[in-house]
Write a structure and sequence with these properties.
Layout lengths: L2 H8 L5 H9 L4 E4 L6 E4 L1 H7 L3 H5 L9 H13 L6 E7 L5 E13 L2 E10 L1 H23 L3 E6 L5 E5 L1 H7 L3 H4 L4 H4 L2 H16 L4 E8 L5 E11 L9 E8 L1 H15 L9 H14 L6 E8 L2 H8 L1 H18 L5 E6 L2 E7 L3 H16 L2 E3 L2 E3 L3 E8 L6 H17 L5 E3 L2 H22 L3 E10 L5 E12 L3 E3 L1 H11 L2 H16 L7 E5 L2 H5 L3 H12 L6 E5 L2 H19 L3 E7 L5 H7 L4 E4 L11 H16 L3 E4 L5 H10 L3 E2 L10 H9 L4 H11 L1
Parallel strand pairs: 16-17, 19-21, 21-22, 22-23, 23-24, 24-25, 25-26
Antiparallel strand pairs: 1-2, 1-5, 3-4, 4-5, 6-7, 6-10, 8-9, 9-10, 11-13, 11-16, 12-13, 14-15, 18-19, 18-26, 19-20
Length: 700
């Protein structure tokens, strides 16, 4: 009992000292009449807490400081005296309308000669708020832990690793209800081996200074295997004593690892055939080259499908893809255990074959050629293809993977140059030839920049009047060290490197510029390559050359071979027609050497047919060649095309061709390719081409 309470019990009217103690006591207090419920006296702390003035309190009852829903409870408590001598929790109203949570203690007292009740109030707002904050924080943390997308668990290591926390995500990962796991240890749920593995991880985590992670395959309760990544660490104790609890965070990474494995597979395998790709091959050949010995050598084979582009162009890319898949299947079927087969891209494949002796690889290469020579079923149609193979051996040819791959590539290039459908082993001479081609490429670029090229002109003679019909422009290279380089020595390299496009454009411009100054009846013939026809700028280049030189289109003859059609007939025919519409004459060169020359005559109306020199040799005595000559004359007449015979070297050949009705001739008998000055002299000399040729022959 407080002093205030005793004062009210022992005195009907408290003395001044107790009045002062009551008024200044830090706890809010008041005395009220239990019958009328009016306030009889209120101390300063109650005035401060609730905000009512003393005058206001004098007119109020204790019900006025209670919200509506609490008033009946108050009346009942007063009548029953149920809130006396013990603390009760209430909600009170302040003067500003806000509510305050309080704890009240009631005591019967005598005040001014009547029964009264003393109420002592303790403000619980801050205490309750603190409790709620702690409770809310705990609930929030529990909710966060339970709803984390990763598994969280805590083990009590002093209690044999019993789980004291196991969130729902953990339960979903292992396939168990979290409530069933808490309070139990691993050996209840897992087999001995798995439980021992978890125990060993826990011990390692406790011994480590920082968190450590583990990744392993775990079998769930439903038998499904999942890949888990778990981070564990010992929780430091608050008082610095040795740790007791182990925190673990687990994540199911099964799908993630599956995606990673799939991406890794895709990065190392060809999407079309499913074979290892160039990246996979590079790693494999690096290992194989390092491991190769004289006792256990390896062979690297590069393989190309010959003329694969023709399949794509004629049958479509779907047929080309089907062919590549079938090639891949045959290569894989021929490979032995320990061999490696990859698709490097396009129609190029690579094989790494482990050997016992060199003869084995020759047999293997022959078996490849035989297998790939069998027909391929492309949408119900049998197609035949061949392949070219380049072979390099390690360590004989190289013990370094980069060098070995270069050597195999050189051998493949040699196989293609040898006519394809064959295999070639690497030889040192191939590297020397490659270096020569590289040097020649560099020098050709310099030659183009430094104007080292020159045109020679070979006369074309009309048999009708023995007059000069014009010239064929032929390129020569004035090399600063090697002198005059013939076309056969550099044109193939120019074709291979694409320089022929720029060189060909220079030839066209120079030939047109030169011919523009000749008599108007003379024509100029210019050869165009397959590479030029593949280039989109050809038509514009021809038009530009004519415009700049002022040469009339009908004085320009463009000579092509059937290889132009083989490259891409869909592009070649429209381009040829566009050139012809300009007025340019089109000639088919080397006629008779291709297997489909006649079909091209039917596809396009050529202005001139140039019979290949191989049919002129022996025309005097070979009835077969003579029959071909007569046939070409008939074809030319039927198609209204001029006929020209190349390679005239004897008077007998010339006479025979005149008798058979050929229109034009060309050859060393009539004039070799000559510099511009000699051509100009021949034009202005006032003698026929035959007379000039006879004079030259007499001089020899």
């Amino acid at each position: 009992m407080t002093g205030i309470q005793r004062a009210f019990v022992s005195n009907d009217t408290p003395n001044d000292d107790f009045q002062s103690l009551f008024a200044t006591h830090p706890s809010p207090m008041w005395v009220y009449d239990p019958d009328t419920l009016h306030f009889l006296i209120v101390n300063n702390a109650a005035i401060d807490l609730y905000g009512y003035s003393r005058e206001t309190y004098a007119a109020m009852t204790v019900l006025d400081i209670r919200p509506t829903h609490e008033r009946q409870r108050m009346i009942t408590a007063v009548h029953a005296r149920s809130d006396m001598e013990r603390a009760e929790r209430w909600t009170h109203l302040k003067a500003d309308g806000t509510m305050v949570e309080v704890l009240t203690y009631g005591r019967s007292v005598r005040f001014n000669g009547r029964d009264a009740i003393l109420a002592i109030v303790q403000d619980q707002t801050e205490v309750n708020a603190a409790h709620r904050e702690v409770s809310d924080t705990r609930s929030l943390l529990d909710s966060i832990v339970d709803n984390l997308p990763v598994g969280v668990f805590v083990k009590d290591m002093e209690a044999d690793g019993l789980y004291i926390l196991f969130n729902e995500a953990c339960g979903a990962i292992v396939g168990r209800n979290s409530v069933d796991v808490v309070g139990r240890s691993d050996h209840i749920f897992y087999d001995e081996k798995q439980a021992a593995a978890f125990r060993e991880q826990d011990m390692r985590a406790f011994a480590a200074e920082a968190a450590i992670s583990f990744e392993e395959t775990m079998r769930r309760s439903d038998g499904v295997e999942r890949m888990l990544r778990t981070v564990k660490r010992a929780l430091p104790s608050v008082d610095g004593s040795p740790p007791r609890y182990l925190l673990g965070i687990s994540q199911d990474v099964t799908e993630e690892r599956s995606v990673e494995a799939r991406l890794a597979y895709m990065a190392m395998h060809d999407a079309l055939t499913g074979m290892p790709n160039r990246a996979f091959f590079a790693d494999q050949i690096r290992r194989a080259a390092k491991a190769a010995t004289l006792e256990q050598p390896i062979a690297l084979l590069y393989l190309d499908v010959d003329h694969f582009k023709h399949i794509n162009d004629s049958k479509g890319h779907a047929a080309g893809d089907a062919l590549l898949c079938q090639v891949a299947q045959r290569l894989t079927a021929l490979a032995r255990p320990g061999d490696f087969v990859a698709r490097l891209g396009g129609d190029e494949f690579a094989l790494v074959v482990r050997l016992d002796r060199e003869s084995c690889i020759e047999r293997f290469a022959k078996s490849l050629l035989t297998s790939l020579s069998q027909p391929f079923d492309l949408d119900g149609v049998n197609e035949h293809v061949t392949c070219s193979i380049g072979i390099a051996l390690a360590p004989d040819h190289a013990d370094d993977d980069d060098v070995l791959m270069r050597h195999a590539d050189l051998a493949l290039y040699a196989a293609k140059e040898s006519g394809r459908s064959t295999y070639r082993f690497y030889e040192p001479s191939m590297r020397m030839e490659a270096e020569r081609r590289h040097l020649l490429t560099v020098e050709l670029r310099e030659a183009l920049q430094q104007n080292q090229f020159e045109l020679y002109y070979q006369p074309i003679v009309q048999l009708e009047n023995d007059g000069l019909a014009g010239f064929e422009a032929l390129i020569r290279w004035n090399h600063p060290e090697r002198g005059l380089v013939p076309p056969m020595d550099f044109i193939p390299v120019a074709e291979e490197t694409g320089l022929i496009v720029a060189i060909g454009e220079w030839v066209l411009r120079e030939a047109c510029r030169t011919a523009a100054s000749w008599p108007k009846h003379l024509k100029i013939a210019v050869n165009l390559s397959v590479s030029q026809f593949r280039h989109n700028s050809l038509l514009a280049s021809v038009v530009s050359a004519l415009d700049e030189s002022g040469l009339r289109p009908e004085r320009l003859e463009i000579e092509i071979t059937e290889s132009v059609f083989l490259a891409d007939v869909g592009q070649s025919l429209p381009l040829l027609k566009a050139l012809k519409e300009l007025g340019i004459r089109i000639a088919i060169d080397d006629f008779g050497t291709g297997y489909s020359s006649f079909s091209y005559l039917r596809a396009f109306a050529f202005d001139k047919i140039k019979l290949d020199r191989s049919f002129i040799a022996g025309i005097e005595t070979d009835p077969g060649n003579l029959a071909i000559v007569r046939a070409v004359v008939g074809i030319g007449s039927g198609f209204n095309a001029t006929t020209l015979a190349e390679g005239i070297e004897t008077e007998e050949q010339l006479t025979k061709l005149r008798q058979e009705g050929f229109n034009e001739v060309q050859g060393y008998l009539l004039g070799k390719p000559m510099p511009l000055a000699q051509a100009q002299a021949l034009i202005t000399g006032g003698v026929s081409a035959f007379a000039a040729a006879a004079a030259a022959a007499a001089a020899r």
